[in-house]
């Protein structure tokens, strides 16, 4: 029933290539099917003014889509002088999701910025950005540990995200664009590797959904995140 021919509970092919840029402390290119996102993590020995002197670290994120990441060219947001509401919402989601997997005391008073640039979009870009963003963050933290700037690993658990929804009346895992654009119910699920929930975004796009359907989607999301965490761990091993 799925346009891709996948089973209802089948993920798209996932690959994570690390150390893809020369200068960033951590970087990866994550591919989830035809959605490709470049993630880089940059370390700065400073924090935002609102936590300066607290001893706490900070993880933040920025997100953007390249002009031809989609089927027709999008105008660069920089040319309009401001980011769109969708961009701001997604980068805030990425930042708070990654912070949920960090011991900010152990991190020390420094900031790591994770930049997520969508090279090619085919649905689930925010989920790919979160999943790849954690890999870039982990690589940057490992570099700090190796340099002796951190005495312990401040990352509590991997953080990954996957989309689930109701497509053609059936619950499906990891929606691509043809499914996402036609889904009756669309959801994004962000979890830690230890199974703890960080955030769930669900909405009725064309039809309402039941509590049982939501539970089914949650089960699919846990399955998908488990597979993504396995891929993350393999990438940073």
TrEMBL record:
<feature type="domain" description="Exoribonuclease phosphorolytic">
    <location>
        <begin position="158"/>
        <end position="223"/>
    </location>
</feature>
<feature type="binding site">
    <location>
        <position position="86"/>
    </location>
    <ligand>
        <name>phosphate</name>
    </ligand>
</feature>
<feature type="binding site">
    <location>
        <begin position="124"/>
        <end position="126"/>
    </location>
    <ligand>
        <name>phosphate</name>
    </ligand>
</feature>
<dbReference type="InterPro" id="IPR002381">
    <property type="entry name" value="RNase_PH_bac-type"/>
</dbReference>
<dbReference type="InterPro" id="IPR018336">
    <property type="entry name" value="RNase_PH_CS"/>
</dbReference>
<keyword id="KW-0820">tRNA-binding</keyword>
<dbReference type="InterPro" id="IPR050080">
    <property type="entry name" value="RNase_PH"/>
</dbReference>
<dbReference type="GO" id="GO:0016075">
    <property type="term" value="P:rRNA catabolic process"/>
</dbReference>
<dbReference type="InterPro" id="IPR020568">
    <property type="entry name" value="Ribosomal_Su5_D2-typ_SF"/>
</dbReference>
<dbReference type="InterPro" id="IPR036345">
    <property type="entry name" value="ExoRNase_PH_dom2_sf"/>
</dbReference>
<keyword id="KW-0698">rRNA processing</keyword>
<keyword id="KW-0694">RNA-binding</keyword>
<comment type="similarity">
    <text>Belongs to the RNase PH family.</text>
</comment>
<dbReference type="GO" id="GO:0000049">
    <property type="term" value="F:tRNA binding"/>
</dbReference>
<dbReference type="Pfam" id="PF01138">
    <property type="entry name" value="RNase_PH"/>
</dbReference>
<keyword id="KW-0808">Transferase</keyword>
<keyword id="KW-0548">Nucleotidyltransferase</keyword>
<dbReference type="GO" id="GO:0031125">
    <property type="term" value="P:rRNA 3'-end processing"/>
</dbReference>
<feature type="domain" description="Exoribonuclease phosphorolytic">
    <location>
        <begin position="10"/>
        <end position="140"/>
    </location>
</feature>
<protein>
    <recommendedName>
        <fullName>Ribonuclease PH</fullName>
        <ecNumber>2.7.7.56</ecNumber>
    </recommendedName>
</protein>
<dbReference type="GO" id="GO:0008033">
    <property type="term" value="P:tRNA processing"/>
</dbReference>
<dbReference type="GO" id="GO:0009022">
    <property type="term" value="F:tRNA nucleotidyltransferase activity"/>
</dbReference>
<comment type="function">
    <text>Phosphorolytic 3'-5' exoribonuclease that plays an important role in tRNA 3'-end maturation. Removes nucleotide residues following the 3'-CCA terminus of tRNAs; can also add nucleotides to the ends of RNA molecules by using nucleoside diphosphates as substrates, but this may not be physiologically important. Probably plays a role in initiation of 16S rRNA degradation (leading to ribosome degradation) during starvation.</text>
</comment>
<keyword id="KW-0819">tRNA processing</keyword>
<dbReference type="InterPro" id="IPR027408">
    <property type="entry name" value="PNPase/RNase_PH_dom_sf"/>
</dbReference>
<comment type="subunit">
    <text>Homohexameric ring arranged as a trimer of dimers.</text>
</comment>
<dbReference type="InterPro" id="IPR015847">
    <property type="entry name" value="ExoRNase_PH_dom2"/>
</dbReference>
<dbReference type="Pfam" id="PF03725">
    <property type="entry name" value="RNase_PH_C"/>
</dbReference>
<dbReference type="InterPro" id="IPR001247">
    <property type="entry name" value="ExoRNase_PH_dom1"/>
</dbReference>
<dbReference type="GO" id="GO:0000175">
    <property type="term" value="F:3'-5'-RNA exonuclease activity"/>
</dbReference>
């Amino acid at each position: 029933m799925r346009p891709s021919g996948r089973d209802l509970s089948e993920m798209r092919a996932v690959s994570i290539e690390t150390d893809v840029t020369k200068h960033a402390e951590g970087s990866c290119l994550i591919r989830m099917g035809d959605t490709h996102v470049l993630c880089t993590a940059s370390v700065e020995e400073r924090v935002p003014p609102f936590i300066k002197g607290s001893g706490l670290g900070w993880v933040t994120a920025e997100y953007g889509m390249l002009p031809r990441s989609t089927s027709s060219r999008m105008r660069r947001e920089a040319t309009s002088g401001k980011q769109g509401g969708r961009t701001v919402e997604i980068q805030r989601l990425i930042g708070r999701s990654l912070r949920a997997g960090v011991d900010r005391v152990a991190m020390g008073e420094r900031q790591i910025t994770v930049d997520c640039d969508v090279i090619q979009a085919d649905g689930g870009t925010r989920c790919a950005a979160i999943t790849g963003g954690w890999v870039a963050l982990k690589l940057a933290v490992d570099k700090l540990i190796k340099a002796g700037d951190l005495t312990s690993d401040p990352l509590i658990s991997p953080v990954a995200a996957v989309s689930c929804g109701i497509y053609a009346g059936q619950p499906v895992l990891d929606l691509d664009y043809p499914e996402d654009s036609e889904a009756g119910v669309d959801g994004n699920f962000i979890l830690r590797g230890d199974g703890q929930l960080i955030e769930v975004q669900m909405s009725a796009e064309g039809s309402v959904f039941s509590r049982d359907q939501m539970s089914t989607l949650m089960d699919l999301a846990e399955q998908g995140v488990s597979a993504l965490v396995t891929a993350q761990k393999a990438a940073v091993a």
